[in-house]
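Example with several molecule types.
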Amino acid sequence: MRIAVIGTGHAGRTLAQGFQRTGHDVVVGTRDPDATRGREDWHGLDVPLAALGMVAADADLVVNATNGQASLAALGEVGSDHLAGKVILDVANPLDFSQGFPPTLSVKDTDSLAEQLQRAFHQSRVVKSLNTVTASVMVDPSTVGDGDTTMFVAGDDAEARQQVTGLLRELGWSDIVELDGLHNARGLEMWLPLWVRLMGALGTGEFNIKVVR
Amino acid sequence: MRIAVIGTGHAGRTLAQGFQRTGHDVVVGTRDPDATRGREDWHGLDVPLAALGMVAADADLVVNATNGQASLAALGEVGSDHLAGKVILDVANPLDFSQGFPPTLSVKDTDSLAEQLQRAFHQSRVVKSLNTVTASVMVDPSTVGDGDTTMFVAGDDAEARQQVTGLLRELGWSDIVELDGLHNARGLEMWLPLWVRLMGALGTGEFNIKVVR
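Resulting structure tokens for the full complex:
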């Protein structure tokens, strides 16, 4: 699959390498490919870069790995034409650090970042997933405990959820809870306030939860 | 320990019986003891009832098991004099069902029900716990999976958190994550929007999460 990852931060970089590892043709979108290539954290990485306006032209699936506060603008630069008809896997969180740590959520409870994206790019099919764990765990669940923790997938379109679930299985996820309806992204994003507090209490972001019945 | 449980709903009833089982002297507070005793769900229960204004006079610890929308008013009737100097174990959630299911939260993100209670009853020490699971799991974690799931405790006062942790261990909880600071109750209450959605997806409220490192 041709996957366009939007965002050059830790999550974008880690996801790009994860999807390369599982055999996909990955390109990462950035405003200025030369500037990104010159950054220390991109030095020597074998990951193709492209300008936002071009990155999704030939993509089969687009991953939103931008800062949640910048996602609408960044995907706007990718262009609704290039996003139309495609699945947008949204891994971002609307974390607002403007008042320090712990962050608050800039959208919540009666709306979510994922739903904002779906409204803005209504010809795309947004699926929320992977936002509940840190980047290294997203692409390698075996790093946590015995590797058997839970991942969630929320979206309106069953076929789009299935496409994402397939990518997750390739990355090593086996316990996947599907939530029918993108409004369920409200619950997934509202997990973050507890996640950031547990990160503080546990002294690491490399953890996850297992839903036990 | 003499425990006053405020609230006669499913959570209050279940907690009262749980704390009786673990050897405590329990009384449940209600506006009208005779009316509560006459209710079908209280028929034949061997749990003492007392009027709100009396229930906490001799209590060592008070449990808020009321509907989150009514907690401030109910504890107001219990009386700040009777609550002063005591630990208030707050298991309630600020769920707002006025727009149907799933509920939203009437306070969140920059404040929490637990903090509202702490401000209103500033001579008490509020500890948030047990609000992350359904009533039957609160008092018997062995009903979920192999019984080894995670419970959280948040509060400003270390001795108060320890008192609650002791009660939890008696009920069967062993994996207890302590969060230093009652502001962490924001994270615990914001877990509920995901909890209610998982209840829908799993078809049961009898589940919990295990935090895996």
